[in-house]
Amino acid sequence: MIETLKLNIERDTGAYRSNGQRLVSVTEALSIAGLVDFSGINQEILDTASERGRLVHAWTAAYDLVSTDSVKEAIFDSAPTEVMTPYIDAFMQFRRDCDYIPMLVEHSMASSRWGVAGTLDRYCRINGMLCVVDLKTGAAVQDWVGLQLAGYEILLKDTQHIDDHIKRYSLRLGGDGKYNLKEWRSYTDRHDFLAAARVARWLIQRKRVEL
Fold first, then answer.
1. Exposed, middle or buried by CB within 10 Å (0-12, 13-18, 19+), for 105?
2. Is 163 within a domain?
3. Which of 57, 99, 139, 179 is the most buried (most CB within 10 A)?
4. Cα–Cα distance between 87 and 81 in angstroms, integer?
């Protein structure tokens, strides 16, 4: 039986801890292994994109978890801003098109087997199929996202004891009100993610990098 870790998330940093031990996150593992690199992008652009992503994630989670618009607006003290509206429209169109049934929303989890933690955007059904979905709001979806989704799938199966086949999707929500749902099918993604996680832990344990 795989041990289920008691997980704490630091409010200020978003860091994952279990029993006082700092756990590497899915995205940190990929970054430390050299697969994710934003160093060439202006920090102001990164900050703007990060804040947009945070708000879109919060609003879409509210739409999945709360039934009425009045309650959602009470949570955020206002209706969505003009900037946010197209992204939410894209999400709502996706919901209508894809027979979407959310089951876990912004779900944090950790694996004792791999020493990795992460927060899954969605575990859901799309057109009747079990899926993990990661929401994106950038101009393009990078190729490392397949490994990111594989990491979430591994954590989900470990912590929820799921044996069924799970599809992996990125859902890009655009500022034009349109969405793109992409399935990631490579059977090597799981192996490659675990390899990245092992490299990350090796570097951390030898103090080559710091979390």
1. middle
2. yes
3. 179
4. 10
Amino acid in the structure at residue 41: I
Q: What is the mean pLDDT of residues 184-193?
A: 97
Full-model pTM: 0.91
- Looking at residue 40, its amino acid is G
Report the pLDDT value the prediction gives residue 13, as an integer from 0 to 100: 85
- Domain around 77: 8-205
Closest CA to 119 of 175, 167, 54: 54
pLDDT at 105 over 80: yes
In a domain, 1, yes or no: no
Structure tokens at 64: 């999945």
Q: Measured between alpha carbons, how far is 145 from 136 in angstroms, rounded to an integer? A: 10
pLDDT of 171 above 50: yes
Query: What is the largest distance, in Å, between two alpha-carbon atoms of the chain?
Result: 52
101 within 8 A of 124, measured Cβ to Cβ: yes
Number of domains present in the structure of the chain: 1
Would you tell me the crossing angle of helices 189-205 and 145-160 to the nearest 10 degrees?
Answer: 90
Does residue 145 surpass a pLDDT of 50? yes
Q: What is the mean pLDDT of the chain?
A: 90
